[in-house]
Amino acid sequence: MSFAVLLFSGLLFAKIIRYFKLPDVTGYLIGGLIIGPSVLGLLSADAVTQLSLVSDVALGFIAFSIGSEFKLEYFKRVGMTPIVIAIFESFVAVIFVTLGLLCAGQTLPFSLVLGAIAAATAPAATIMVIKQYRARGPVTETLLSVVAIDDATALIAFGISVAVAQTLTSTAEVSLLTSILKPILEIVVALAAGGALGAVLTLLLRLFRTRANRMVLAIAMVLFTAAAANRLHVSALLMTMAMGAVFANLCKNSSEIMSLCDDITPPIFMMFFVLSGAGLNLSILPSIGLVGVVYVIVRVIGKMCGAWFGAYIMKAESNVRRWLGPALIPQAGVAIGLTVVAQQVVPQYAEVIRAVVLCGTLIYELVGPGIAKWTLQKAGEIEQGI
Fold first, then answer.
1. What burial class does residue 376 get, using C-beta atoms within 10 Å of its C-beta: 0-12 exposed, 13-18 middle, 19+ buried?
2. Whole-prediction pTM value?
3. pLDDT of res. 164
């Protein structure tokens, strides 16, 4: 019944939101918010928690799809541009938010940890907008690469900031080098394991020739990779992306397999975003105060300035410099996951950090897809009439 409610809500609100010329994903999120515990309560908070498997599966397929765009010929053509942009948009957001919070009178450990969470970007909503409007062009290509790399740069930025915050707040002896190296090791493990599984998928495809069997194999490998990442305590997004990237470069028929996955993912993605909307909590809005306002506004400024500067020094096209930043606004799963770690580092600020990040998620997820569509239109990468 819960799955039925998610799907019917997604269909209804996507239909309604199109009258306002907004992306379907915005309708899914608003529909979820309305049927969720914050408004009508058709889905209880317990039901939202119990259905978290849907989110894990959807993010696995989203990451696999992003990874498949990482082909060597693309990087031979664009060079280091996406990597440099991802580093700057992540670290400039961290610096801006940290300084903004310090100017607002917050302590250095608190400002560092909350500033580090600002680096994270949610790829899912952006990918859905690109798919719906069939966006094509340099801004879209760069955006896909940057949101993929962003997961790694965000983890590194968070690891460094948390290490410094722990050193400042802990009375026990804390190894700064170990704290900084830990997230880097996690990234290396995720990429290596994902790459190995990408090679395994390529080999296994030789045993199966029919479309049905190949679809089943691809689904099984995505699910297995996401599960293995959870067991290894590394980023499932990074590991599944790495699998998709290696697979896309080794397998000549990778585009055929990706199209098979595209046939079965629409209902999964729809349920994921409706469920994400149901998890948004309106009651936290009044509690964020000045800290929340600084975080929400300054993070956007940092992302836009960092993306522009990274594109500028790499001499990227003018459209990339101008329109990439606003498309990096959405923030969700990774940021919320980092708040759990933050609660252990600065427990005295745990409630405030969680409230601010959840409120930012609410705002960014509702306005982000519409802004992503607008920027891609302005860049001329969405055809008229789509």
1. buried
2. 0.74
3. 76
